[in-house]
Structure to design on (1137 residues):
């Protein structure tokens, strides 16, 4: 009898869990960790306070697989998703996203229309950029005294011995390899478009292959550095910044050869809460919110009108956020913008080659 | 054969001396204990050698037993070792100095507390702590999903599986081999293939009654998937029970005037019940352990314990996972004991008492 | 007085033979009916989904969905050189129409993705051409396309479009076997640097064989010991086999990570014993070694249980008899004992091998880069690169391999002999 009531209550509990979603509730999907936290502080909390709706926050590791699966199955549970540019373009091309009219977006705080206020190349048919982020490499100052300063140092096993952390993907790694091999930032994609260029990049990666620890989630690289698992690691600049500013880790970013990219909001087609999602999108990409996010993580806002509002770190006023941004002129001296078209065209093939290369042990 | 007591054999004294030596050398109680058990267990089982055995025979036997002991050690160590590790006060996966010297402050329950606290809105809140934990703690939710899915899929698998096993074990059953291999195949076909097929099939709209949006991302879809994966185990265990089943009992019952239903519930059922229950336990543990179908079919709300462990291990492995693992080991021990009791009961019922 | 030639009749006057046949038939149908619900259940939840997946590996009508008129027309093209302008005209018009279509599965992006699988770089070619297609008002259409992008001069582009415009395709099986169409439409091996599926499939088979062999080597002595010990002791020791068997796969995988990682217990222990230095810690997990160790541990009970159940039936007196007649231990073992255990060996090895080929979770967690198996690639195509047809083709190949071994298992061992514990 006891067992019966117990199992009955377990069943009931399960059934309740299955019908949890209610009206005024949207699911916002992002990259987790410090990045999601910055969005929660700058977007979610004020929006919830203002509208009285609730937000379910979910983490993912990028890619459009889940969006595609949901949209094609016609069972869309993600309402708004933070994606990389190349993914936004591909998903939009395949009809997986709702279109977004820039005219619907709020004007800047200074009254500039949205389409002029957003930085060039940040508004698309189905996507609105919120931030500029960057992949850089970093090291632990307390362990390496005269630290690396340029991209080539990352591949220099003699000068800087120890394991290397790299994202398990051909993206960015091939660009880094070419820059380390002496290709100028502006020529990277031109070289990479040729078979010889791809060979050259892989050859450069070969030189460190035996010492690489591959990471997949953005939260991993700071952890790898902190645990001493790696001496140098590529990482998203905001994650390293937060480990430094928030947790007082002695990490140092090397900006040379940074590959910067956009993160954009997209709304999967058939979202059950499309209007709410749109409202959240407009709210979160307003001048003030973008600037507020920049006080929580060192990613540059996509609106010009936000830049002047960027001040100091939210929990430590002694840290000026400006120099921490990928878009800070001093950090842009040798930098590449991720070429979404190149990756849209070549990701399939290069991923195959990358996997074949990895599997060769 | 004359048995010589363990402590009267010369080998035992050599072993004790060596263990003492190791202890003095390493200053570690644990190392000495492992050494003593590994090398002592074979010695303990040496007793049944006949008197005419030569020294070579004895050494050969000892080496054989030692190899077996090492294999058993290989089998069981990983499972036992996570238990003390889950009480580590430090966020490491290894024994700290303090743990080795049995310093109480090196042990803590923090990872067990973490199971309940992780994901809670206000882990340190005072009001509504219990409901907050029940509704929001990630692992608690996962456990609820796991049990819910496992219980329902077990019921489905056991019902259909037993019915089919009853048919399969009838002597008149046609196409037995073909049908059996079909019904066992969910166990054989790689899970990735099964899960991929279900992912596409269950995602279709307007195909399933009551589920216009498809079965993917519904509890029902996962329950069906898990029932499918559990069925082979039910079939195997129930047919095994039925194969030792004396069919003349059915004829006797019928001869005495019992109806088909009475025969089933009064004669067949009690005899196959242990097999059914162990089949159900297998189906239950299969569902509790299954992660591939969940990865492909489940929504984030439907995450189960193994799914949560999977992403935990992939992304940020923390000792909380060891604490969860320890709890799962305890559950396994419970299920295994139940199975053992059932097996004994079944043997007693059928008059096959162990020698 | 019954006539010996007339048939024996039952009470109601029907011949006994007919009555017996009738009863047997009824019993057969009854038995069949008992299994029917489950057979239907399995067909719906298992066979149909897999069948549909197999279908997906050859059925990819993207071209027909996106550019239907062109897809129909281009089949008339002989594939020599560049297509006539009348085909190109239909293509341009279809493309302009498709550009406006945002229906899932019918967008220009879908066609671009499909063609890009075969010719890398054609995604942007097709999407950018589609944006300009509505501005092309008059012929020659081919020249207009070439003006937009010189890649349209490549005959391979048009051959691929022709192939993508068919209902059924073999392209994904070719890709799954590291083959592709060359510029003339002939099938050739893919460039060595891009070959991955056959090497990984071979590696999967090879690794499974190694794992099976290791399981056999470890299981044989243990099963022998268990089968010869008194029941009470062997039941006790059996717990050491059954507990791992009943413990969650993820728990065991986690345990091996804790044991084998560089800062883990095995390394710590070896450093403690002085076998290796603190800076000489060995990488034993997140690579092939880790996959092998963890999988042997996980699959070992599947080898021990069938071996044990066969060995238990071999009377120990056979070995004693052989020895008393003067056979050496080795001789008695190889000639008398071992042959009798072969059914158990067949059952165990085949089962372990079959299970190993399809493993996904353990390699995904501890395999690192060189410990990945074919299942991981399939999951990758389904879950992240989204090349579902290729994933399905790879899945079909893997399924075929597994079914062959399952068939052998059935012939040699018989599924009804499968037992646990």
């Amino acid at each position: 009898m006891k067992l019966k009531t117990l199992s009955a209550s377990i069943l009931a509990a399960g059934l309740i869990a299955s019908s949890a979603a209610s009206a005024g509730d949207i699911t916002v999907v992002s990259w987790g960790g410090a990045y999601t936290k910055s969005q929660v502080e700058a977007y979610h909390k004020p929006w919830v306070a203002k509208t009285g709706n609730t937000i379910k926050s979910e983490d993912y590791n990028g890619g459009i697989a889940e969006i595609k699966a949901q949209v094609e199955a016609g069972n869309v549970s993600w309402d708004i998703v933070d994606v990389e540019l190349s993914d936004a373009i591909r998903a939009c091309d395949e009809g997986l996203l709702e279109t977004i009219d820039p005219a619907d977006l709020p004007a800047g705080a200074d009254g500039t229309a949205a389409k002029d206020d957003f930085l060039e190349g940040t508004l698309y048919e189905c996507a609105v950029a919120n931030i500029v982020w960057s992949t850089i490499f970093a090291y632990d100052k307390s362990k390496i005294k005269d630290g690396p300063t340029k991209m080539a140092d990352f591949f220099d096993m003699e000068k800087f011995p120890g394991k290397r952390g790299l994202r398990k993907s051909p993206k960015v790694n091939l660009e880094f390899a070419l820059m380390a091999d002496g290709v100028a930032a502006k020529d990277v994609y031109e070289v990479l478009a040729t078979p010889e260029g791809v060979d050259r990049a892989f050859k450069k990666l070969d030189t460190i292959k035996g010492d690489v620890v591959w990471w997949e989630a953005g939260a991993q690289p700071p952890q790898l550095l902190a645990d001493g698992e790696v001496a140098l690691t590529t990482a998203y600049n905001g994650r390293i910044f937060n480990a430094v500013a928030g947790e007082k880790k002695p990490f140092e970013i090397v900006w040379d050869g940074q590959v910067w990219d956009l993160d954009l909001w997209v709304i999967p087609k058939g979202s059950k809460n499309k209007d709410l999602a749109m409202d959240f999108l407009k709210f979160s990409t307003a001048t003030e919110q973008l600037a507020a996010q920049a006080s929580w993580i060192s990613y540059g806002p996509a609106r010009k009108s936000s830049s002047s509002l960027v001040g100091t770190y939210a929990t430590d006023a002694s840290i000026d956020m400006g120099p921490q941004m990928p878009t800070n002129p001093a950090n842009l001296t040798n930098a590449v913008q991720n070429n979404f078209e190149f990756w849209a065209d070549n990701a399939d093939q290069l991923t195959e080659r990358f996997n074949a290369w990895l599997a060769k042990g | 054969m004359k048995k010589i007591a363990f402590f009267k054999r010369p080998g035992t004294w050599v072993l004790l001396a060596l263990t003492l030596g190791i202890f003095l050398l390493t200053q570690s109680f644990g190392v000495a204990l492992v050494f003593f058990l590994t090398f002592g267990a074979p010695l303990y089982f040496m007793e049944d050698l006949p008197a005419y055995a030569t020294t070579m025979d004895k050494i050969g036997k000892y080496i054989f037993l030692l190899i077996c002991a090492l294999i058993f050690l290989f089998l069981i160590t990983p499972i036992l070792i996570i238990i003390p590790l889950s009480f580590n006060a430090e966020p490491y996966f290894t024994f700290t100095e303090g743990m080795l010297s049995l310093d109480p402050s090196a042990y803590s329950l923090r990872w067990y507390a973490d199971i309940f606290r992780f994901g809670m809105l206000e882990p340190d809140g005072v009001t509504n702590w219990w409901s907050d934990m029940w509704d929001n703690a990630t692992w608690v939710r996962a456990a609820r999903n796991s049990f819910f899915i496992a219980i329902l899929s077990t019921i489905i698998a056991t019902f259909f599986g037993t019915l089919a096993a009853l048919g399969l074990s009838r002597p008149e059953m046609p196409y037995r081999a073909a049908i059996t291999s079909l019904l066992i195949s969910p166990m054989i076909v790689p899970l990735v293939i099964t899960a991929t097929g279900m992912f596409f099939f269950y995602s279709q709209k307007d195909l399933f009654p009551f589920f216009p949006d498809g079965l993917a991302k519904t509890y029902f879809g996962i329950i069906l998937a898990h029932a499918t994966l559990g069925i082979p185990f039910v079939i195997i265990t129930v047919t095994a029970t039925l194969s030792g089943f004396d069919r003349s009992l059915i004829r006797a019952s019928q001869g005495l005037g019992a109806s088909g239903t009475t025969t089933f519930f009064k004669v067949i059922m009690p005899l196959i019940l242990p097999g059914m229950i162990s089949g159900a336990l297998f189906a239950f543990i299969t569902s509790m352990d299954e992660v591939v179908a969940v990865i492909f079919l489940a929504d984030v709300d439907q995450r189960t314990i193994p799914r949560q462990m999977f992403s935990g291990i992939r992304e940020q492995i923390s000792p909380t996972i060891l604490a969860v693992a320890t709890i799962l080991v305890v559950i396994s021990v419970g299920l295994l004991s139940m199975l053992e009791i059932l097996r004994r009961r079944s043997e007693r019922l059928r008059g096959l008492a162990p020698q | 007085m019954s006539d010996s030639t007339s048939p024996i009749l039952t009470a109601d006057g029907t011949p006994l033979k007919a009555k017996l046949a009738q009863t047997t038939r009824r019993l057969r149908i009854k038995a069949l009916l008992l299994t029917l619900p489950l057979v239907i259940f399995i067909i719906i939840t298992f066979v149909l989904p897999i069948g549909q997946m197999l279908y997906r590996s050859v059925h990819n009508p993207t071209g027909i969905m996106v550019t239907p008129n062109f897809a129909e027309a281009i089949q008339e093209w002989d594939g020599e050189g560049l297509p006539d302008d009348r085909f190109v005209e239909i293509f341009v018009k279809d493309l302009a129409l498709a550009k406006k279509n945002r229906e899932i599965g019918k967008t220009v992006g879908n066609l671009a993705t499909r063609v890009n699988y075969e010719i890398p770089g054609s995604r942007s070619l097709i999407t950018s051409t589609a944006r300009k297609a509505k501005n092309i008002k008059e012929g020659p259409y081919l020249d207009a396309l070439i003006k937009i992008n010189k890649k349209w001069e490549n005959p391979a582009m048009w051959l691929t479009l022709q192939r993508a415009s068919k209902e059924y395709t073999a392209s994904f099986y070719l890709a799954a076997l590291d083959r592709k169409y060359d510029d003339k439409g002939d099938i050739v091996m893919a460039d060595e640097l891009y070959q991955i599926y056959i090497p990984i499939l071979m590696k999967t088979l090879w690794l499974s064989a190694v794992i099976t062999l290791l399981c056999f080597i470890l299981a044989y002595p243990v099963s022998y010991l268990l089968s010869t010990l008194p029941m009470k002791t062997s039941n006790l020791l059996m717990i050491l086999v059954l507990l791992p068997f009943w413990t969650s796969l993820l728990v065991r995988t986690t345990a091996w990570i804790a044991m084998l990682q560089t800062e883990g217990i095995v390394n710590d222990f070896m450093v403690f014993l002085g076998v290796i230095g603190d800076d000489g810690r060995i990488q034993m997990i997140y690579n092939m070694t880790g996959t092998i160790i963890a999988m042997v541990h996980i699959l070992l009970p599947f080898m021990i249980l069938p071996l044990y159940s066969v060995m238990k039936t071999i009377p120990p007196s056979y070995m004693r008899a052989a020895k008393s007649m003067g056979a050496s231990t080795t001789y008695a073992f190889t000639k008398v004992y071992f042959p009798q255990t072969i059914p158990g060996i067949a059952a165990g090895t085949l089962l372990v091998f079959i299970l190993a080929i399809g493993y996904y979770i353990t390699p995904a967690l501890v395999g690192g880069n060189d410990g990945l198996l074919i299942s991981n690639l399939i999951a990758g195509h389904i879950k992240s690169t989204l090349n579902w047809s290729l994933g399905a083709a790879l899945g079909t190949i893997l399924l075929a391999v597994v079914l062959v071994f399952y068939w052998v298992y059935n012939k040699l061992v018989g599924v009804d002999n499968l037992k646990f514990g």
Remarks:
- DSSP finds 19 helices and two strands in chain C.
- The beta strands of chain C are 179-181, 187-189.
- Residues 197-417 of chain C form a domain with the MetI-like fold fold (CATH 1.10.3720.10).
